Amino acid sequence: MSEKLRVGILGGTGFVGQRFITLLEDHPFFKVTTIAASGRSAGKTYEEAVKNRWKLNIPMPDSVKAIQVKDVQDVEEIKREVDFVFCALKMAKDEIRELEEKYAKAEIPVISNNSAHRGTPDVPMVIPEINSDHLKIIDVQKKRLGTKYGFVAVKPNCSIQSYVPPLSALKAFEPEKVVVSTYQAISGAGKTFKDWPEIEDNVVPFISGEEEKSEQEPLKIWGHIQNGKIVNATEPLITTQCIRVPVSDGHLATVFVSFRKKPTREQILECWASYSGKPQELHLPSAPKQFLKYMTEDDRPQTGLDRDFENGMGITMGRLREDTLFDYKFVCLSHNTLRGAAGGGVLTAELLKEEGYLLSRKEKKAGVSAQGSH
Q: Which sites are catalytic (predicted)?
């Protein structure tokens, strides 16, 4: 078996950082060697730093409890202990953008859960089943940064993971207009019901910045590489409303869509049933065997029942009907901290490894070039 890559988690004490840690326990490709956070946590063991703030309903892995937390600003020290890092920091966007590039320029690849670099034209924003071809832009980015191994890749916002995959499966029919409302879990705000008792028996019709991301980020995913940058798609036109609802995990969306070439209901269902991508082709460890699943029951998908489909990495859809104003409407669901956050980041890292962008110490010493090689 090849050497496992050494992984650092920036922002490892937060909700998404905790998800990364649990997903990487006994991972076949990766091993957590470093956890970093703000200066307040630096020097403490991970168990001490988190204390009573462990938010998941599964226990903290024993393998990380004694790891001494480092300050995220100590890039040179962290560089000695990692082959790449996941970033789940909560900081000002400009500070995250600067810090992620600092890591990349120190030859540490960064796979980020943050939005800071999602708009950067030479940074791929990836849903691995949909736009794995965008990884090619990394070679352009490395030239800009002056690096051999270092780069930044990002995953998109959790709010779009429920509806972008089923729409991507229907791209041949040229979606023109899309109206989406998302009903988003409190874990998307890094909260539990213990942290946020006010959300019980309540709905909050506003999530800062979420609607802009939900309308714009799909266009980058559906874009193309031209003249050294990712050029956003111009269609479909998307308008959204994003609402916080009192559920622990799972973002549900209602979708209305019109097509330039209207498909039949049977064609839509066939496209969904057969859709897959590079992760399935490569049999990546975190890849769902079935990416999209249509549920025939009138009252499905339900957040509490269906968010864990394919270990939280699959997307479920239901209630596909013709509409009086649009061509069709349907409901879809994704797990926001698995597919939408840490799980999506891990799957992206698995793809980057298999495509030759993430290398071990041994591979670097052997002079392997850090670029797509498969």
A: 158 (acyl-thioester intermediate), 251 (proton acceptor)
